[in-house]
Design brief:
Elements (H helix, E strand, L loop, with lengths): L3 H15 L4 H9 L5 H8 L6 E3 L19 E8 L2 E8 L10 H17 L3 E8 L8 H7 L15 E10 L1 H8 L2 E5 L3 E2 L4 H8 L5 H5 L1 H7 L5 E3 L2 H12 L26 H4 L10 H8 L6 E3 L7 E8 L2 E8 L10 H16 L4 E7 L6 H5 L2 H14 L4 E9 L3 H4 L8 E4 L10 H9 L7 H12 L4 H6 L5 E2 L5 H13 L19
Parallel strand pairs: 3-4, 4-5, 5-6, 5-7, 6-8, 11-12, 12-13, 13-14, 14-15
Antiparallel strand pairs: 1-2, 2-3, 9-10, 10-11
């Protein structure tokens, strides 16, 4: 038959490329219960939707050309729940998915298409960093810096990184630039591996300590979620995408409202203690207000006195920023500031309205906070808040003290301010104020102390705030869902198509 030789050659090249790093390496991954790069794409994408770009690419170096199918990075386009996405899946079985001249070109092309076509970009897997000897010497330097916009984020579309193994070099850089990062336990992320770092600093260091999940979920804050397996990471990636638009010029998708979403507000009075000195978990209150099972918390192990979460009200995405008195009494520390700031940027960039749920005694003051530049973090928050163009609703549940009253959307920093009757609007806790203003301690003069506390508490109620029209309404806590639903519907209309101005689109992804 005509063209037999050519078609056989095509089949042979394709078989070799799809063989990845070979049967032995693929078998080892299977034995370790880790999906390989192509299996991850099967798990992520709708069946039959993958369009590969660069299947036949290899290293440009002759000595490794035959050992570099797809040059270690599988790239292309597919669909997740019917929506088009761009994907980069690192193939660790091929030269450790190390970064090279050719696969760098592949990444650039996929990124460019994702930005121009308005598709989320998803990066899966692991990588060993720069490929040697590609990056050695003057020739290696000439490979770098050919794209001056390689690390520029304008947030035209959402980026997701799943850290599923040893992640150094490009996997680390793109994770730091991504809007959502999920990490499998056992994976690591760092500038360089523990081995390289140990040599550089002449000190033995454990890779887990250097860049394991606890480090990044609890200390650095670079990871948004932690899971136990590849499959869980991919499922969480899909869930996160379900709240997001495909690109910055459209509103988030609308989902059906699950049965049972209404009528759960009665539980609020059971969840919040009547005694203001007692703590509670604000996440349980959030769950009664939003659509059933729609809450997805981000960075739950970092800056824990603040809860940042995606949820839905009436099937529409909202971003919730809530003080959580369960941790540090709801006082806001530097980590919490950074966490909220990143969330403000994310929601404003992708047209997601914000709901502030307030119960905070102010910022956590002390030497440690000052050393971490707390004033700068607080003002960064305020600067970002002033640039947010999506609707902002502030719900004051209990305490809202000091400067943090403004950071949490008080005054004109929100489109609407609503209070529960339990709201307390002092500059600080009255008990603390009596001590500072009058020098009176409860154990020294209990009667005078109580009298002064009552005096300082007089003008701090929701009713006084309402009389000054600094809150637009005072509501029964059980009516919160309906109130938020109506206000969000009113304020979304000013965006027309639900698209904001994206004044925070080029704000750094880490702070």
């Amino acid at each position: 038959m005509a063209f037999d030789q050519m078609l056989n050659e095509l089949s042979s090249f394709k078989e070799k490329a799809l063989g990845m790093g070979g049967p032995d390496k693929l078998a080892k991954r299977k034995a370790d219960n880790h999906l390989n790069a192509r299996e991850r794409l099967v798990a992520l994408l709708d069946e039959g939707s993958f369009v590969e770009s660069g299947l036949f690419s290899t290293s440009h170096r002759a000595e490794v050309r035959e050992r570099s199918p797809a040059d270690g990075k599988i790239t292309g386009f597919g669909k997740v729940d019917g929506r088009r996405v761009a994907v980069i899946s690192n193939d660790f079985t091929v030269l450790g998915a190390s970064s090279s001249m050719v696969n760098g070109k592949k990444i650039r092309h996929i990124k460019d298409v994702a930005a121009k076509a308005g598709m989320p970009l998803i990066l899966l897997g692991e990588s060993t960093g720069a490929r040697m000897p590609d990056r050695m010497g003057a020739e290696g330097r000439a490979m770098l810096g050919q794209d001056p916009y390689e690390y520029r984020r304008l947030r035209e579309s959402p980026w997701v990184s799943a850290l599923l193994g040893a992640c150094y070099g490009s996997s680390t850089w793109y994770a730091a630039l991504s809007d959502f990062v999920v990490m499998r336990k056992g994976a690591t992320m760092a500038v360089a591996s523990g081995r390289v770092t140990s040599v550089a600093i002449r000190q033995s260091i454990d890779s887990e300590e250097l860049g394991g999940w606890k480090m990044h979920a609890e200390v650095s804050g670079l990871v948004d979620a932690v899971v136990d397996s590849d499959e869980e990471a991919i499922a969480l990636t899909k869930k996160w995408l379900s709240y997001m638009p495909s690109h910055h010029n459209e509103s988030p998708p609308v989902h059906a409202v699950p049965a049972g979403s209404e009528g759960r507000g009665d539980h609020i009075l059971e969840l919040m203690p009547e005694d203001k000195a007692k703590v509670y978990d604000v996440r349980k209150i959030v769950e009664t207000i939003v659509d059933l099972d729609s809450m997805m918390e981000l960075k739950p192990r970092f800056g824990r006195s603040m809860c940042t979460a995606f949820a839905r009200i009436d099937g529409r995405s909202v971003g919730v920023i809530a003080n959580n008195p369960l941790f540090k009494g709801g006082a806001i520390d530097v980590d919490a500031c950074n966490k909220v700031l990143g969330f403000l940027v994310l929601c404003d960039s992708f047209n997601i309205p914000l709901v502030f749920m307030v119960d905070q005694p102010g910022f956590l003051i002390g030497v440690d906070g000052e050393r971490k530049a707390a004033p700068g973090r607080i003002m960064n928050w305020m600067s970002a808040l002033s640039l947010v163009t999506v609707p902002k609703i502030c719900l004051i549940m209990r305490k809202s003290y000091g400067q943090a009253y403004l950071n949490m959307g008080g005054g004109r920093n929100s489109d609407e301010v609503v209070c529960w009757p339990t709201a307390d609007l002092g500059f600080m806790a009255p008990q603390v104020g009596v001590n500072i203003l009058f020098g009176v301690k409860e154990d020294e003069d209990p009667e005078r102390f109580r009298k002064l506390v009552d005096e300082l508490s007089k003008d701090t109620s929701a009713w006084r705030l309402a009389s000054l029209y600094e809150t637009q309404d005072v509501i029964d806590p059980r009516e919160t869902r309906g109130c938020l639903s109506r206000l969000l519907e009113i304020h979304r209309t000013r965006l027309g198509s639900g698209v904001g101005k994206h004044l925070l689109a080029n704000w750094p992804t880490t702070f």
